[in-house]
Amino acid sequence: MSGGAGPGRAGGGDPDGAAPLPSGVSDLPGAAQSDPPGSTGAPRPAVAGTPARPSAPGGSDRAGGHDGPAHPDAALLDRVALGALTRIDAMRPSFRLPDDVATDANPNTTLKPLGELAELADVVRTAHPLPAARALAGELFAFAWKETRGGELFAELVRGEPQATYPVELYGVFARAGLRNPAVEELLAATTGLRLWQVAREDHTRTLNVLNAERRIGLPPHADFAEVLAMTGLGRRPEPWALDRRTAYGLTHDVFHVTDWGRVPGLMPEPLAGYLRLWLPAWTASWLEERQWDLAGELLAVAACVPQAPYDPAAWREFAAAQRRDGAVPEVGDGPPEGAPPQEQFIGCYHSTLVAAFAATLARAAAGSGGAPGTAPSTPEATPAPAPPSAAVAEHTPAPAESEVLP
Amino acid sequence: MAEQAQENSSLSAVVADVAAGVALALDGGRDSSALSGVLAQDDPLALAAIRVLGADVLAPYALRAGGGPGTTTDTGTDMDSGMAHRRTARASGVGAGPAARGARADGEVVRKALAAYPPGADASEVSLWSYRGLVEASRAYLPAGQGGPESPAGAGDRAAGPAAVAGWLQADPWPQLAHRASQLAALSLPGLAPALATGLAARTEDLSRGFVRAVRRRDWLQAAGIGRWLARVPDVPDTLGLDTGLVYVLRMSGGDARVALHTAIARRFHGRGAR
Amino acid sequence: MASDLSAPVETAALAAEVEGLLDSAEPEGIYRDTRECGAGLLLLGALLISPPTPRPPKTDAR
């Protein structure tokens, strides 16, 4: 993708510049070559390990297959990511959509997990440096598309609930990768073109996701991204000590939406990036201490979405220790007991396990693109090397990577 | 263990009483002699409470000595000369009035507290620092001749510390640093420990993170103690919201007297907390 | 304010207590979130599809 792609604020249309695949495509490039359609304008070798990082000034996408500088914590991060992906793969039956998905089924236990699987797997399959991780994530992404019957599901959902945003948000995940369905797009042109569609929604963070979906699909934005961002938990830059779990979750998602899920860290406005660099260590430590692994994992992912945010080895160690032998990361505390029924295991672990794979991928990829790992502010069991007494060094160092990622 | 002591013991209750009295003297402009006027001089609990609160028991004197907003961001050598100046002014100006008598009596009670609870051989570094801070405060804030108890042999030297403190001040990870700084909050009074103040001022962002962590854990006492150090420095990150944070901590603590004393000092000396 | 608590107290024990208060360990963190936040594990996880969207009536007149 070019630098102006990502969640570009200007212009409509598919910014990825890749020709959409014919609709109904369900055989995604999966296992072997995980290069996604539509993820980049620059050709990339399918074989990992070849220097393939776009060197053009606009080339900003984090992409797998590059030979970046080795990450000092590569072994740990790869163990987390591969373990989590393996576990997610084993959970496929629980991700399958029931027959009544468009009518009676609870969307929060059916569509939501599948959408999250697709969103995060798409990042892993394009950004992870290891071919094995990309391949597995690619298969999972293809699986998700297949579950939507090549997008037909979205047509059903939109017909059933023309005012709802979630079918649009979910379809956008696939459209971003070039997986499209013409029937859905015809429908969306009719439903999202209404003045009603522009009525402000309660949750600004969600609105950012809707705006991203519109951009991914090529629909005109229904609101101004920057204006909406200014009203979110991130945009407001709340007192860092006042955050509660809900605000913190909102804030992590604001970051994901601004940076297109970590693909384009340079899109984070600098004042917000500075705010995040300053307070992330405190939040991460705090929610790790509370054993809120899911939120802590999201905060670790956020750190990898912010240019020049330091890598925090101690926090990663603590997070990785929460991962079970089977690769699952419990949402909170110890998670469901070992003998719990699969559905309970699924609900208690699927999201945090996805987040683990996502965060580990971004942290790993950050070594080779945008925010190179810096020195973390001194944390317990941090690197023994004498660290500067504060994060001031990282804080005030101009970000050389930004020129790479900004349009 | 320590936590339980704080909650349950009669010492904690007396500590709270003394802290409340000092805060009242600071805020209400009451006679600064908060100690001798209200404490039984030979009550071991009262003396122990003074030792626990350290230099803070003399905060009203420091305020009178000119430690209010505008004079306290100086550190190091400036501070030393400023302090000498104040001492001279006071020595010449304050002679034999009731205030001077109160100061004399307070000096006496502080001297007794120091003598009764010297840092033992296995005393913690915090204890040594706190002891040293009280010694220094009585020298610096009380009129000449009223403070300055002789240090018990060795204790002063052991607590002398810039060299001793340098290690953790630079090396401690931010959560530990912030916790320790909070324990030493009384030393943030003007002029008491310039090296400590300078060292902590170099880690303002780390202390700020510690403040965030302490509030999130609802450890109001720690948060207020860290907040006092942050109140001294000009470069606290704006987004921290220190002023609203100090008020928040005070209110959320539900009337904890030691928290109230910390926040009163941040407000009275540095103008932070309620603007 | 205090203190009529001047009953003879073991000074050595008090000295230990003084030490304990001065060099006190951190208390356990107390974490409590708004109750509206604790409603359901699932909704905490992410915001893709929360809150649940009301479902359309089952009758699909097509």
UniProtKB/TrEMBL annotation, chain A:
Source species, domain of life:
Bacteria
Compositional bias (Gly residues) at which positions? 1-15
**Region annotation (Disordered) ranges:** 1-73, 366-407
UniProt domain DUF6895: residue ranges: 83-361
- For this entry, the protein name equals DUF6895 domain-containing protein
Q: Which organism is it from?
A: Actinacidiphila yanglinensis
Automatic annotation (TrEMBL), chain B:
**From what superkingdom does this record's organism come?**
Bacteria
Name of the protein this chain belongs to: Uncharacterized protein
Q: Which organism is it from?
A: Actinacidiphila yanglinensis
Automatic annotation (TrEMBL), chain C:
Q: Which domain of life is it from?
A: Bacteria
- Name-wise, this protein is Uncharacterized protein
Which source organism does the UniProt entry give?
Answer: Actinacidiphila yanglinensis
